[in-house]
């Protein structure tokens, strides 16, 4: 027995030596992340507080060079070391939830209420640190410079659990449509008339234009449809509604009647919408495989769309002469005009649209807040991390347009995750050094002004606790993911399928969800 | 450790004999030690997690500290209440049975025929080619399939339309997928299993064949009376492994069902298996308890299926049984 | 007559194999072709087996682009080689012992090995084990350790070992060879084909594993090849379905590589592992040369 255990022991020891002993140089040098990348052994360095900050990003070139520069600033100002960890966006939500659920170490993390990142749920569970009292103390500027209403969006039971990343594009939302400028002129389409129209009416006006444009350009596609995105289910604002809790699940309110939680799929608008899409599908205005196609970026890059939805505002009527382009296309390949149709509102999810949370178990909550404040107030630091170094990673071409240098540091346009890109002095973002740059500054001024006075969604601050109806939610999710894409892309006949869809939702327990939402919503409103 | 517990039931064995048996076993336990220790750490330690299926899990209280669900089976409820639980269970079993039968038969046939190809270079080329799909991950296969079947840019449709036909909407019609999915799984897996069988055939003592040839047995007779019986243990082990996974989509490799049809709602009626249903139902809810509940349900069903089949095999051929 | 019949059946067999080989090779050629096709032509002409407009841009993009491919190769190759060797060693030692009649508890031990195939505790406990107990997070070892044993391979290998004639082992014993010595000197060399077979599958497993990296790897330097590939393929879908969340997201989607670049990464990711089979070929063919040994 003794001999056996002895040999076992030596075998395992041998094994562990094997594990730690050999290996190619590049691998073993990165074995333990802590001591690497800090070649300067100055005594002060030892006391630097390590802060792990998780965010979604694709791989970044020359990351170490830029981070080293950034860390020089951070070490000097707040005596900390930022360890920015880039997680692939398709696994980010799963990874963070797993880390939270297994009590792993992390200090800061990008958080949001979409894409499965579950800001509200994790905040309710106590995964994020309560920042209500710390924020004004450790990050005063971050806290005070953005519209106060936004903080309601990151509150659970009146406590703040996330730091809002206020963006250069503002938070008040107004949706509309983009049209191909050249085609609209060719067809004599009066797109200005759509301004402010309810979406059903707008779609009815767009239809004939699509038909006309497609007759002249049969290789194009009228309007984008895809399985992950439904103009109805993913965008309540188009329908003058607002979601109570997660967007695609049943349970919205109508903004003109904000007392009553309704099943959005039972509304007349949804029925009309599916009918219009069916009509467009039969007439060939949308992709025939719109219910199942996932990636539409090839179509966008090939400038195939005649019309598209847009979140961009101010539109071409508010500020004429904007040089717009269709999404993912260039201005000369696909010039666009835009018109906004919906009301302007700061949605309930706006605060938690992009925010930073701090681990409630972190030993460095205050330091983390100091880092957030530094990122938000030190414009050079923020620009260094999000854009790289001017002259090395980017420059301005002869027309004054901002140009990235190929193969160099690029943050892949993910600056919105690590701080507030907003700045009243336009000092935290890059603008073309020409007329286009001036126009975007103009537009942004307008946006900031609106944000201060914009209507705030009546649902802001409400958190739905899904525990009592989890079974129903799971089953309703199964039904909506199956049927909403087909109905929203016109590939099935709504006359037949819509009633069936509603019946299946009922069987899955949709009414329980609505009832539960209503009860919690009423209680919350009464307590306010 | 093992030797001591071993000693108790064998009390009647003389001490010296016991000692000798212990001494004879020792080297084998030494050989097994690293593997067994790794299994104990990597597989058995996390297995405590199955109790999450009965818990209202939260990270604060951990796996043991989290409160029990009330009622205890609450986490299982959503699956059995789902209106499509029956149809996805049917799909799971349907595709799994097709896969077991098609992959086994094709792989066996290919392995036996490959054995007949005497030119080494040619046979290696064949083997190498049919093994290629095994190297691909589902997401790459998805892209290949899409470039074949895409409505506007796919190769198949461009061949059809070039010949004056009407483009087929492969991604909109569920019934096509009843064929596409089994073919895809067969395509990906058949090379793997035929190479496995080829290796098993290579292990057969060539004396048998020489003796049979001397007796004037035909090729088919040699296959029937030598190759197949000697392959039987391998076939049985693989089948037993599969039986345990009958309730898991794609026999445990369910990613194809999720990836290949682009996770398209319109195709769920023929592409949804238990795992894909659970995956997308819980994506929003994000509840570890509910997902482990269904995992446990699949495991328990598989466990009983394996126990029964193993029992039957043990009766007929004790050496081939798994345990 | 007999000659012709034989010839005919051989022809049929060969034709069948040629057709099957094509069915397996052509789709891969398609991937290669797309990776060499000009992006515009891909939009307009659709996918083709032969590029209509040839372009090397995709490869330029991948080699210039972020996430160094060469570094990813180094990680993947190291993990695959070390992982496969260790896996083969542990698996064969365990599987062989489970076939030995001397081991009185071999059935119970087989059960112990098999049970985890069915029951697993899910992600959370494994994650806790790897990160908080073994402290392997963000090390190259986590990529190896996770795939180090597989019950399925142990059980398959058990079957292979059973075909080794008992007489060989017996005679070694009479010659005074210890059991461990017998295993390494006689059993293992005789099992080359099965080791090569299992080894091939294990290395495919290690080569293609991206899940482990996505869970445990955080530094860019330790990202294996398949993880890069998966990111390229999956990010678009994720960003697109959430594009209403942020206006910058559309810009982020626009930054993602084209279809051609994704296919180029595919080619680079699967290319080297495909060469493994010809490399191992000689071990497959040798087989058990025990015809000489009298039973």
Automatic annotation (TrEMBL), chain A:
InterPro entries given in the database record: DUF3502
Key words of the record: Signal
Domain annotation DUF3502: ranges: 458-526
Range of residues in the leader sequence: 1-21
A Pfam family annotated for this UniProt entry: DUF3502
Name listed for the protein in its UniProt record: Aldouronate transport system substrate-binding protein
UniProt source species: Paenibacillus macquariensis
Automatic annotation (TrEMBL), chain B:
Alphabetized UniProt keyword annotations: Cell membrane, Membrane, Transmembrane, Transmembrane helix, Transport
Domain of life per record: Bacteria
Domain ABC transmembrane type-1: 89-309
Cited InterPro entries: ABC_transporter_permease, MetI-like, MetI-like_sf
One Pfam family matching this protein: BPD_transp_1
Subcellular localization: Cell membrane
Membrane topology field: Multi-pass membrane protein
Coiled coil: none
Keyword Magnesium annotated: no
TM ranges: 28-54, 93-114, 126-149, 179-204, 225-244, 294-313
Family membership: Belongs to the binding-protein-dependent transport system permease family.
PANTHER family on file: ABC TRANSPORTER PERMEASE PROTEIN, LACTOSE TRANSPORT SYSTEM PERMEASE PROTEIN LACF
Name of the protein in its database record: Aldouronate transport system permease protein
Species: Paenibacillus macquariensis
TrEMBL record, chain C:
Membrane topology: Multi-pass membrane protein
Domain ABC transmembrane type-1: 73-280
Gene3D superfamilies assigned: MetI-like
Entry keywords, A to Z: Cell membrane, Membrane, Transmembrane, Transmembrane helix, Transport
Alphabetical list of CDD domains matching this protein: TM_PBP2 (cd06261)
Membrane-traversing stretches: 12-36, 72-96, 108-128, 140-161, 182-207, 261-280
Localization: Cell membrane
InterPro entries named in the record: MetI-like, MetI-like_sf
Superkingdom of origin: Bacteria
Family, per entry: Belongs to the binding-protein-dependent transport system permease family.
Protein name: Aldouronate transport system permease protein
